[in-house]
Amino acid sequence: MARAGSSDCSTIETSQDVPGRTLEVPQGPAFIVNRMGQAEWARELARTILEEPLPRRWAHSQGVAAKAESLVPILGEEADLLIAAAWLHDIGYAPDLVDTGFHPLDGARYLRDVVEADGRLCRLVAHHTCAVNEARNRDLFDALTSEFGQERPELVEALTYCDMTTGPDGVPLDVTERLAEIHSRYGPEHLVSRSITASTPYILSAVRTVQAALEQSQTA
Ligand SMILES: [Fe+2]
């Protein structure tokens, strides 16, 4: 899959693992992941975290995961990782996980520190949908980028495609409808709206790139 063009959020070069917060650690999932595959494990973890307190986010996550499953033809073996990230990308919204209030960072830290999840999965969640722009607006850019490096740009684009073509209730949406929905939900002055505006060129480019790759795979 070709990379998106100049509007690229994926410019962080290195990953640096730093000591995390001290949190209550539940049963580690590593042995389950090995037996079940990461996507199945991620679905159950996301269900546990989101279904009851945030049913709308849970519905959205199910829609995003369905989109990720549709990318198997272009992602091959990495589809399992992408689907797992799709399930878990918004867990940072869950009340029990909120710390900084910036959901990509809170979700990724939970995955890293509490669940001891795969580093690639943590990085995808940390940087999903051009999170660096919102991190800048929240004065969390240094925290985000020093703790979590970028993942392979094609996978970052793929997760952006899945998130930005799925509405808040899990229904598939055109990317322009999705962008409009975010602006209307938050209002023009909100930090999230301003961050999405900054990210829009990258988002549109990522969606176009993934759609082109999908179309190509269907005609091949
Ligand atoms: Fe999302």
Secondary-structure class? mainly alpha
Low-pLDDT segments: 11-35
Could you give a short account of the major beta sheet? none
| Count of individual domains | 1
Radius of gyration: 16 Å
Q: How many strand segments?
A: 0
Q: Topology as H/E string?
A: HHHHHHHHHHHH
End-to-end C-alpha gap: 13 Å
Helix content: 55-70%
What's the pLDDT, averaged over the residues?
Answer: 87
Categorize the overall geometry: globular
- Work out the helix count: 12
Could you say which small molecules are bound to this protein? fe (ii) ion
Beta percentage is: under 5%
Task: Briefly summarize what is shown.
The protein has one domain.
Properties at a glance:
Metal-dependent phosphohydrolase, HD subdomain protein; 220 residues; binds fe (ii) ion; HD/PDEase_dom; HD_domain; globular
Overview of this protein structure:
- The chain has 220 residues and is mainly α.
- The chain has one domain.
- It is built from twelve helices and no strands.
- The protein has helices spanning 30-36, 38-50, 55-69, 72-75, 79-88, 103-114, 119-126, 131-137, 141-147, 153-164, 175-186, 191-219.
- The two termini are 13 Å apart.
- Residues 11-35 have low confidence and may be disordered.
- It binds fe (ii) ion.
- Fe (ii) ion is lined by residues 60, 64, 89-90, 163.
- Fe (ii) ion (FE2) binds at residues 60, 64, 89-90, 163.
- InterPro entries: HD/PDEase_dom (IPR003607), HD_domain (IPR006674).
- Residues 1-23 are annotated as: Disordered.
- It comes from Planobispora rosea.
